[in-house]
Amino acid sequence: MKVDMEIQLIEREQAAQESQKTLTERELALDRLADRESALEELQKTQEALRHSERRLNAIIQSAMDAIITVDEQGRVLIFNAAAERMFGYAACEVTGGAMERFIPQRFRASHSAHVLRFSTTGASSRNGDAGRDLGSAGQW
After folding, report:
1. 84, 105, 106: which is closest to 95 by C-alpha?
2. What single-letter DSSP state applies at residue 90?
3. Residue 26 CA neighbour count, 13 Å, CB half
4. Which residue from 132, 101, 97 is spatially nearest to 115, judged by alpha carbons?
5. Spatial contact of 78 and 72, defined as CB atoms under 8 Å apart
6. CB atoms near residue 115 (< 10 Å)
7. Is the terminal CB of the chain with fewer CB neighbours within 10 Å at N or C?
8. What is the pLDDT, as a whole number, of residue 113?
9. Alpha carbon distance 75, 53 (integer Å)
10. How do residues 101-120 score in pLDDT, each as one tens digit?
11. Coil, strand or helix: which one is 76?
C-alpha cells in the first residue's frame, strides 16, 4: 500500500510538472502572439504615417510654383507636377514613364547625360551653382 501511494505521489508530481510545462509553453505562446499583435499595430501606424507623409509631399509638389520633375535611375519620369505641365505643355499622364531627355534641349543633352552618369556613380552633384541657369523655353527645343 505504501508503495502504491508513493507511485501515485510520483505520478501526481509528474502530472503537475507536465501541467506546469504546458502552462509555461502556452504563456510563452501568448506572449509571442501579443508581441506579434503589438508589432502589427506598430506596422499599421507606421504605414498610416507613411501614407500621410506621401499625401503631404504630393500636395506640396503639386502646389509648387516651380516645375518639379523626378525621374528613376533609367531617366523615366516618375513625377511631373502641375507647374511642369504648364511650363512644358504636357499633361503628367502623357509623360509619366517616358524619357526625361525629351525636356532637355538638344544642346545640353550630352552634358546632362554626363552629369546623370556622374551622379549615379558618385552621388555628387555639381548642379548647386546652376540655379537659375536658363535652359530655354519649350518652343526652342
Report:
1. 84
2. -
3. 6
4. 101
5. yes
6. 15
7. N
8. 85
9. 25
10. 999 999 999 998 888 888 88
11. strand
Residue for cell digits 502572439? 33
Domain ranges of the chain: 1-63, 65-127
Q: Topology of domain 65-127, per CATH?
A: Beta-Lactamase (3.30.450)
Which pLDDT score is estimated for 137?
46
* Closest C-alpha to 88, from 101, 71, 74: 101
Question: Which pLDDT belongs to residue 132?
Answer: 44
Task: Provide long-range contacts, Cβ within 8 A and 24+ apart, for 90-95.
Answer: none
Question: How far does Cα 19 stand from its chain's mean position?
Answer: 47
CA separation, residue 18 to residues 23, 30, 50, 78 (Å): 8, 18, 47, 61
User: How confident is the model over 19-73, as pLDDT tens digits?
Assistant: 899 999 999 988 888 889 999 999 999 999 999 999 999 999 999 999 999 999 8
CB 88 within 8 A of CB 67: yes
